[in-house]
Amino acid sequence: MPEPADNVVTARRGSEAQRAELAGRIARNVPGEGVHECAVPGLAMIRADAPSQPLPCVYHPSLCVVVQGRKQAMLGEELFVYDPLHYLLVSMSVPVTGRVIEATTDRPYLCLRIDIDPGMVADLAPQIPAPAPAAPSGDEHRPMHLARTPGPLLDALLRLVRLLDTPAEAGVMAPLALREIHYRVLLGELGPRLLALCQVDGAAYRLARAIDLLKTHYAEPLPIDRIAAAACMSASTLHQRFKAATAMTPLQFQKQLRLQEARRLMLMEGVEAAAAAHRVGYESPSQFSREYRRLFGAPPRREVRAALGEGVAAG
Fold first, then answer.
1. 12-69 per-position pLDDT tens digit
2. Which CATH number applies to 200-315?
3. Which of 21, 187, 233, 290 is the most exposed place for a label (fewest CB within 10 A)?
């Protein structure tokens, strides 16, 4: 009968083999740098061939699993570093500053990003054993968490990625694989954080409603009372809890959404800076340029030219 130490070594070797296969399959499917959406809805593959400069961006509810290399994300003053041993769970949309910190041409940064499906989480929730009561840790409402990547989760991810080689089967099997991935996360140490999204009376759920309103109407003037009503909170409570979760006020968050969308329009669609500013709700081009420079470190045209030269990656 195997000794416990032998079981640990066997499990570690199995995880390394899974990661090696995942790395090979991702590299084969994404020969170039950047974020690559896949034929499987909700799945993206990210590659970077060199460390990157810090870049402000918005992370949306997702599971980020690094297969090779390392990345860091800064939320307010809190630093998250995820690597092939750890995955990142983002439970609500948050503004972060991301940076790839380990990548080379021979061993690029490779990451899988899977969108969180709140409906799937709600459907699976009744089938998850109730966790043992835990002492408050102070991070219950934090929107980002790290955990060690367990073998069963890696196995489910690998089976999902393998489906990219069999498109005829992917339409049937991919939803099952995605469901299992959600299930594995719910069973793990971050399960309670993910379940909080479905607790209608919980603060995480209500904050997510406020964020959804901001994401949908980012280009419009939004009075704080309207945002608070969406979260079923008073304006003062919303302000306090929103800033605790995102390190920003609701209106600062809305401004970042506007600037991020303007950057996307310029970078991906070739829209001129003045037109992009107008489309995201800015009336003053000079105010747009000033706030863009404050966030991204350079005026719009110069920053976008630099980004096009370096390539961009999120996740």
1. 666 889 999 999 999 999 989 999 999 899 999 999 999 998 989 889 999 999 999 9
2. 1.10.10.60
3. 290
